[in-house]
Amino acid sequence: VQLVESGGGLVQAGESLRLSCAASRFIFSRKNMGWFRQAPGKEREFVASIRWNDEGRSYADSVKGRFTISRDNAKNTLYLQMNMLKPEDTAVYFCNAVVLVTQTPEYRYWGQGTQVTVSS
Predict the structure, then answer these.
(1) Does residue 47 sit in helix, strand or coil?
(2) Cα 48 to Cα 38: distance, rounded to the nearest angstrom
(3) pLDDT of 71-108, one tens digit each?
């Protein structure tokens, strides 16, 4: 399994970012995928998920209506469009295959993540 996240940065509240996750060494197109994040001093938490066939999405309440998860199976890439960012969205963002019913990561492996910092 290899997961490489990118697209993070420093933005002001209300601005947008688009994260990408390049996946390899597993059959991406057959995996339900998700985004997770970890803020300083906090546990990693679920953000959003998408079914392998792009026919279902789920979001944490804290990001619903602001974030959109998508995927391109031809490119083995997962995306997270983040709009109306808030300071509380500040965290390192990770992607992983996801167990939908529990909203937990499937793989024990994690990529390096991408830092998102939102200033007020």
Answers:
(1) strand
(2) 13
(3) 999 999 999 999 999 999 999 999 999 999 999 999 99
